Structures are given as structure tokens and as C-alpha cells.
Amino acid sequence: MFSRALKPVASVAAQNGAKNFSTTSQKNFKVAVAGAAGGIGQPLALLLKQNPLVTRLALYDLAPVTPGVAVDLSHMDTPAKVTGHKGPEELAEAIKGADLVVIPAGVPRKPGMTRDDLFNTNASIVRDLAKCVAQNSPKAIMAIITNPVNSMVPIASEVLKKAGCYDPNRILGVTTLDVVRAAAFIGEINGVDPRSVSIPVIGGHSGVTIIPVLSQSQPAVKLTSQDQIKALTGRIQEAGTEVVKAKAGGGSATLSMAFAGARLAGAVLRGLKGESNVVECAYIKSDITESPYFANPVVLGKNGVEKNLGFGTLNAYEKELLKAAIPELLKNIKVGEEFVKNSK
Ligand code: NAD
Ligand code: LMR
Questions:
Q1: pTM for the complete prediction?
Q2: What is the pLDDT of residues 109-120, one digit of tens each?
Q3: Average pLDDT for residues 313-329, to the nearest whole number?
Q4: CA spacing 20 to 30 A to 215: which of 184, 268, 319, 338?
Q5: How far is the CA of 253 from the centre of ligand 2 (A)?
Q6: Distance (Å, whole) CA 14 – CA 146
């Protein structure tokens, strides 16, 4: 179901160096990373520098090391031209002309914190970055990694609405890490290559809002009792906390997030390029449930989200999970929307 599992003819041909029949599709994209010097930003930039669709990679951060990160990456013998941009006065230059802006800027959790505890610091960071996107590259796709994702996507959306350039198909909350984790854990349980596992994770990106739809896993999860299913569901929901605890005050997931972020970014670019059947889960504006933003598989195309695929049939347990997720999502979304309403 997901983009990795699908090998459309055009992409296989391109990989084999065969003639590509689409002569009009764009293959040169500018990607900007905001928060590029951080724990996620640096390995994400490393992975994006290796993507042949990326011809310009703009790294933006407040940290003084940012231009150095760009110089470091620029010595890699891959086509993307890397530029470094440090501090607010250099932000517009980083964003100008970007096709995709990936945002991992902001503080991560420490043990004992929830993602919502990050709101007060991260809300204004995402708001200001979204303002800059509205002013300098209003057609760019925004992929928001910064937590709490459930609230950050509404914040960016409200900012773009205020600026008069809102397109719901161009703002994605990055939930790919939940999908990656679910596949990793199922691969381990089933004793198969996790890359062969396809599993939708729907809802949002925090605690009870993370809903792995284990009944739709391909191949089927080799678990027999409901207790085992509950334990696996709980592990996927709390996997971020597992990393936060293991890092013991040193931050949250960075490397697996960079991997997941590069996968989502790659899928967005393949969609922009015109490849068909590019499917990933993402947290987007939605009318599939009572929650106005919701994550589930979507088709990515030339204008961002091309089609919302919904989530199909849930079993009784998954319906209960969905019921528990909705009030939390509504609360998270309201907090984000109110923040922008009350901002200058
Ligand atoms: P980090 O502290 O290592 O890096 C964050 C970077 O953002 C720093 O380099 C900092 O200088 C930069 N920054 C801060 N304010 C900025 C601004 N206004 N403009 C540009 N850059 C700014 O943190 P990290 O581990 O990379 O995590 C970043 C965010 O990603 C956190 O909010 C974390 O919770 C979130 N996260 C989300 C997921 C997910 O699945 N969506 C997974 C892991 C982490
Ligand atoms: C994750 O899922 O790893 C991220 O959201 C970071 C966190 O705080 O758990």
C-alpha cells in the first residue's frame, strides 16, 4: 500500500537508467530544512543530499554551526547544491523558491515530559517559519516534524489562512516514524524483513492518538491473543517515550526520525515529479472523522496531497482506539488554532 512497496513502471525505468517517457516532469527540486543543525536536522540533511531529485538543499537554523554543516555536506559527491543560512535575517533566502520545506525546528522532550509540554516553546517557532513560507514560497509543501505535531499543523494552517495562501493539500504533519516503527516491530515479531511490511498508522502523533491499524498489516501480524495485540499497540504508541527514556535526558528520536523524514520528503518529491501511486501516511486537514485534522494514507501528487485514502475498515478494538483518540485530537487542534488567533 505504501510508496516503498509500490514500484510504478516510471520509477523502475528511471532506476534502471532506461528512457523516461515523461518529458515534462520536473526533477530538480529545492528543499529547505528549518532546524537543520539539530539532532534530526543534520542526519536528515545528510539523507536529502543523497536524493537525486534534490538539486538545491537549503539548511536553516539559529545555531552558529549551520553554515559549517552546509560546507561539510557540500563535499559529498552528489548533485544537490547545499547552502547554509543562519539566523532570522537569512531565513527568507533559505525559503525562497523552495518546493518543499521540512521543519524539525524546536525543542525535543526530556524524560517525564509529554509532547504537549513542548507547545509553549515550539508554537511560536512553527508560527514564524510558516509566516516566512507564506511570504517567500507560498506554494511550497510544508512537512512539519516539530512536536506536538497534532497542534503544529493547525498552527501553520491558520498562519497561511491569515496570509491568504492556505492550501490544505500542501501542509503535512510527519507521522512517518510511527509507520516505520510499526513495520520494524512487526518485522521482528513475524521474523521477516521489515521493509516488506505495510501497515497504516492513523490518527495523530502522540500517545492515544497514534492508532496502528494492526488488522490491516500486510503480511498479517503473527500474534494470536488480544493481550499481545494490545501490548504491541501500546509499544507503538509509546515508542517515542521508549527512546526519550533510553537517551536519559539527551533528547528524543533523531536518527530514526531523520530516516522517516527523508522517506516522507522523498515521497513528496516523487509526487511533485508526477510519479503515480505514491502513498504515505500523513497528518492533514481532513473530513474523514470528527477531527478536522487526521493522519491516514494519502496519495501524494503534483500539488501535494492528491487524494485522501481514508482508513478502511477497523475492527472493534481499533474502533475503541479511534474513539479515545478523537477528543485528544480535538483538544490539541483547538490549542493550536487558538494560539494563532491570539497571536499578532
Ligand atoms: P534539537 O534540539 O536537536 O534540534 C532542534 C534544532 O532546532 C536546533 O538546532 C535549534 O537550534 C533549532 N531551532 C530552534 N529554534 C529555531 C528557529 N526558530 N528556527 C530554526 N531553527 C530553530 O531537537 P531534535 O531532536 O532535532 O527535535 C526537533 C523537534 O522534532 C522536536 O520538537 C521533537 O519533539 C520533534 N520530533 C518529532 C518527531 C515526529 O515523529 N514528528 C520525531 C522526533 C522528534
Ligand atoms: C517520537 O515519536 O519519537 C517523537 O515524537 C519525539 C518524542 O518526543 O517522542
A1: 0.94
A2: 999 999 999 999
A3: 98
A4: 268
A5: 6
A6: 33
